[in-house]
Amino acid sequence: MQPYRPKTTIEQWRILQAVVDRGGYAHAAQQLNKSQSSLNHAVAKLQQVLGVQLLEVRGRKACLTDIGEVMLRRSRQLTQTITELEQLAENLNEGWEPHIRMVVEMVFDRTPILTLLQEFEKQSRGSRLIIEDSVLTGTKQHIQEQSADLVITHQLPKGYIGEPIGEYQLELVCHPSHPLAQLERAVTQDELTQHLQVVISDTAPKPDETEGWLRSEQRWTVSHFDEALRLVLGGLGFCWLPPHVSGAAIRNGTLRKLELEGSSHRRGSLYLVLPKGEKAGPCARMLAQILLQGLQQPPGSQHLQPVPVAKVGTGL
Fold first, then answer.
1. Can you tell me where the transmembrane regions are (predicted)?
2. pTM recorded for the entire structure
């Protein structure tokens, strides 16, 4: 079977688009810096090889036929793809990453970064963003092994620095019918160990179980806070949950917040880290700068400005 050989060229479709967009051959010729006769010939040739009429002249204006409208719409997808492909080759030649990996500790509330990611998408030049959830030792290992381009973490491994971007908080919660919720005082650590604890699994292959919120010998392990919330809402055990996960249930009374003797909640700082340091690529540095600019600015401040890549530093 013979391979299909296109009858038309990208240049012919671009000329057709220019003629339509500029309202005629004369203005299109000025835009493309070509002669009007060459544009007439290109469109005529395009119609000839396709066997359909794309344009018809009405007065002094070239107008699309019904078939032409369909073909023009599809041609824009084609030329846009070619433009993006050529831009990608240029970006890769300049060291622009085809994809970047951002690892995010689960205690971090993602809501504030949604608008920041929208800004990144506008400037990303088509780079793909991979966002991966991580917990405890797993987050530290991504930093130490430089297996991610950006990391949002609440604990910095020795020898690494990060930019502070806020705080996290964990609250001790259970179902209102749970025995711990019936106590009219703060719960002791010993009392906690007598009940089932729902914990989030450490994402490291060999987790350090001396860290984090692992306390009770009786525990069920899940992979995400959402699953932990479902279990606790079902009356199964207690759990340390961040307010962005448990807040609505606490407010409507389907969860009870417990007071722990000596500590009503757990709180700490969150950091943005570029594990690869000076070796971080320009796209990763741009995303880091967008996140820092948005997360560190005071509430109610002005919208983000486009980030010049040349000015993005790696001093995280």
1. none
2. 0.66
